[in-house]
């Protein structure tokens, strides 16, 4: 029922959007929205409103979230801003269109060759990943097939919830992801799509 016009997505209203509020506050601090700022309003009142809104938003997101925050492990204090500098391009030929491939801790096993794919509407796990040894009877049935870019359909063997840890101590996050398990050749052990990226807040 809720829709955010800023994100063009469901889950929260535009008026409750924390990112939009932060973006507006940033523009105000930079002086771009002077004609819209009420200069008569007491400074304390504006600051108080600034404090309350994000807290209310966080409580609403906790209630709406598919994964309770008690299952999340976030250490290291404030969220870290990830940026890229010229040093990150060292040894890389530009321009490039290399895929983003990461390593994550899945059910306490180090899983390499995980493709980050924001175009995927599902998180997918290759059945042949030997370290996990998932018995087929632990999979929940899935009726909807996966449809690829060329229209080919793949019927998942089922779905399973697995603990995923991203990052390294002291800055890491733990979430429970629902993977569709497929028995098909792939150079990747897993694909983290939009659901997983949203859970990881990445």
Automatic annotation (TrEMBL):
Q: What is the lineage of its organism?
A: Eukaryota, Viridiplantae, Streptophyta, Embryophyta, Tracheophyta
Record's superkingdom? Eukaryota
The Basic and acidic residues compositionally biased stretches are 35-58
Name of the protein in question: Reverse transcriptase domain-containing protein
Region annotation Disordered: residue ranges? 35-78
Q: Tell me the organism.
A: Cephalotus follicularis
